[in-house]
Amino acid sequence: MKLLHIDSSVLGPHSVSRQVSAAIVDRLRQATPTLDLVYRDLTQTPLAHLSGSHLAAAQGAPAPAELSADLAASAAVLDEFLAADVVVIGAPMYNFTIPSQLKAWIDRVMVAGKTFKYGASGPEGLAGGKRVIFAISRGGYYGPGTPAAALEHLESYLRGVFAFMGITAPEFIVADGIQVGPDHREKALVGALQAASSLRAA
């Protein structure tokens, strides 16, 4: 079984989402020691954001020489995603949505004919056989019924994008309120780590 672990926080060891995503992976590896793990840190090896040249190359136009390394990186991250049985993604909320580094990665794996297609009945996801687990962290409280709920574009965006690729039952472990104060941060982190340790094994 192949596991793809993605981190996108810019905070390194101070990141809550990184701590929680690592705990999720630890739980899954304890349950299945033979897991084949691939790790990608999107802040250490960032992907370029899409450009007109990327889109032209995707349509079959000759790619400029300076784009060759980036196109190879695109192919690599898509292959990693397609090969994975389980995907664990650490995703903090930045300015009410996902980090731009994670958006760049999503842009490389949302590929027509690979992870979705358009048919007579509309779009159809092609990546539905994967288990996807998100470790998300948010500085405030954005759950349903909270004053800031309308600004929640992290979990809602991830649910929508991955459902488009056929992953309709993603799992979320959430650490909320981590910027409200030290006590709130500690409580959120402890709760999220406990949830990670209680994940079903497979």
From TrEMBL:
Top EC group: oxidoreductase
Which positions fall inside the Flavodoxin-like fold domain?
1-197
Q: Which family does it belong to?
A: Belongs to the azoreductase type 1 family.
Protein's UniProt name? FMN dependent NADH:quinone oxidoreductase
Describe the protein's quaternary organization and the partners it interacts with: Homodimer.
Q: Which species is this record about?
A: Bradyrhizobium guangzhouense
Cofactor or coenzyme needed: FMN
Task: Look up the EC number in the record and give it.
Answer: 1.6.5.-, 1.7.1.17
Query: In UniProt terms, what function does this protein have?
Result: Quinone reductase that provides resistance to thiol-specific stress caused by electrophilic quinones.
Annotated positions binding FMN:
S9, S15, V16, S17, M93, Y94, N95, F96, S137, R138, G139, G140
Keyword match Flavoprotein: yes
InterPro entries cross-referenced by the UniProt entry: Flavodoxin_fold, Flavoprotein-like_sf, FMN-dep_NADH:Q_OxRdtase_AzoR1, NADH:quinone_OxRdtase_FMN_depd
